[in-house]
Predict the structure.
Amino acid sequence: MHVENHFINRSGWLRAAVLGANDGILSTTSLAIGVAAASVSREPILLASVAGLVAGALSMAAGEYVSVSSQSDIETADLKREKKALENLPEEELEELTDIYIQRGLNKELARQVAVELTAHDALGTHSRDELGINEITQANPLMAAFASAISFTIGGLLPLLVAIFAPIKQMVFYQYGFSIVFLAFSGFLAAQAGGSKIFTAVLRICIWGTFAMVMSALVGYIFGVQTS
Ligand SMILES: [Zn+2]
């Protein structure tokens, strides 16, 4: 028996959670590093981390809510239109479906036969899948999606906040960088393993981009720190 393991469908929520946590780690750490590079005391670093964490979690939630609900509005409207067309213009819709299968490589008779049988089986499901590209009619809940991304961002952002509270102030920049790279590498590892993709590539990619973001923030902090002191 030939069994293939496909990950593309089942890793959706995990991917979203890991991306949210990565965002939380990277953006909060970058803020903490930028302020730490310009500051000799702990309070501004803590303040920046907390503010960044709250603002980031809220903006993730708002962005996710808007994106999921507008996607779902579009899908609902498309399905409604399609349902109406199937009721009012069944012959045209059958024609349309036949053409889609011809374009995908079937000959005319077979395409017609497939279209007729699938229309009898589940007309709306077939049109939404093969014409509109909507695979699952059960859509994501915008509130759930917003909540999930805010939570995962917060979990990620708590890590640099803890570092900002407990790490020695003189080496704050290095502690922030070191911990966040370890966290990012770990979450890259988890995501790659859950998604069945190459672990080394995933970890390397997130470490390189994370380093880039944090070095840029540190540079900005140093430049402002030098100018204002
Ligand atoms: Zn159609």
